[in-house]
Amino acid sequence: MTNHSIAFQDTWQNLKQFTPARIALGRAGISLPTQACLEFALAHAQARDAVHIPLNFDVLSQRLELLGQKTVLLQTQANDQNMYLQRPDLGRLLNENSLLELKATKPVSTDVVIVVVDGLSSKAIEHHAEAFLSLLLPRLAEQNYVLSPVCLVKHGRVAIGDVIAQGYSARLCVVLIGERPGLSSPDSMGIYFTYQAKQGISTDADRNCISNIHHNGLSYTEALKKLLYLIQESEKRQLSGVDIKDETTNSQRCVLPINKQSVIA
Q1: Domain ranges of the chain
Q2: Is CATH 3.50.50.60 correct for 52-237?
Q3: Does 2 have pLDDT greater than 80?
């Protein structure tokens, strides 16, 4: 009598090396193998944790200050995570105390405002924001860009950057935000860049997005190169968004234009 195994290996196994997507999972009878089910449950739990576990802003602030960068902690009108998830509009507005804090910390002049937002993945900001800023901040300082304090925003959406950029009268706005987690990337960070951002006027078409920044996605150096290119092009053309296309390649080196009217803060 021939001995048949209950578990069947998927013949597409060799394709798994090319993608983290859930393919070639195999089968046990008409169901998934136990290992595949357990891995799915783990990934789902990690994605939920990324959304619901709060970011420790105090620790992040301390780490950024060790880089020599002042920070300010702000909060949107979403008072808690449930409200944040149910009312996206409130995540685009600062609460009253934060508006006062914005006025109190406004520099005399500001070229660039950097906004770090927990978004939909606290893990993304926890894992990647400090490392990316450690590369970005020196490059901006080299070119004499004047920065406001880095704004750490609790329960924020992308458009909260418009409010802060307008409040600081900043020409360039860079938002680092935790992206909606997937089942293979619960800690993906996105960067949104806007030139002359204004509350209620700037739209998604006015922004440039650099997405999928994590250890198995876009690297910090590649993300930095793309962002510096966008800054360079936006300064030349005085705009951002759909009219600027990412034309960076592995062989290109992006050099920021010197802002001769600015001085180091």
Answers
A1: 52-237
A2: no
A3: no
